[in-house]
Amino acid sequence: DADIFVNQDNASVFYDSYLGRYVALGHSTANVTYLTTATDLTAQNWAPLTHFTNDAAMYWYNWVVDPATADIFTVGRTFRVYSAQNNYGGVATKFMTVTLGGGTTPNAPPARPTYPYPYTSVPDHNPGWQRTPDQPLGSVVNADFTGDSNIPTGWETWPYPWQTGSYGVRIVAAPSMGGAALRLDASTIGQSVEQTVDVAPNTTYTLSAWAQEADTGHPIYVGVKAFGGSETRAAIASQTYAQGHVTFTTGPASTTARIYLWKPAGGVGYADAVTLVRP
DSSP assignment, residue 129? Predict the structure, then answer.
């Protein structure tokens, strides 16, 4: 990190949809907390560092999560900051909750990120940082996993970013589906891929995917969350490719939804041909 923020320790970088900016926060080598924002990760046009919070409340490694969506890449106005310093003031708080102020005037609508930018601008090369260019409403990027050799472009993966030993995701041949498919090797905590798609408010959509389980009793799930309604998913429990789908209606202010393919703990699953359409 020192090549960008001189004499600073590790920075946690994420996109804040309330600010419409990328945010970096961390703890310096001089034990001072900092925060800064940018509009373009390729240009790395970070604003001057500002003091963030009580310096004793953070230490070394810090990371954020949106408590409403469990998203670690994109957060809203309120988010949590977890830190290696988890005993501040003798209390094992584990995290602090941050709510961004609106200032003296209402915030302008969040700006969209600058597209495209290479994920090589982020040190860990995690494909989740490569925000996808604007697509027509309801479009799924890389819906059939074609052209990938390993990491599924356009999808964020959890907990393993790609095949790591016996666990993770990879792209395999799927002649029965006409090309490639996603393979999910679930660890003891499962394996998933997710993607944020643009949607219209107050609109009904059907999300579908084809999948198959390698072993009976270990289904794959297709689901959606963070759309202004309750998370919903459908199990695909078949040892040959079968289609599963869920129907949902976006909230009155919702312009994005989070779709996913999830393989719970244990076993192997395959998925392909993801679609999102208005019935």
Answer: G
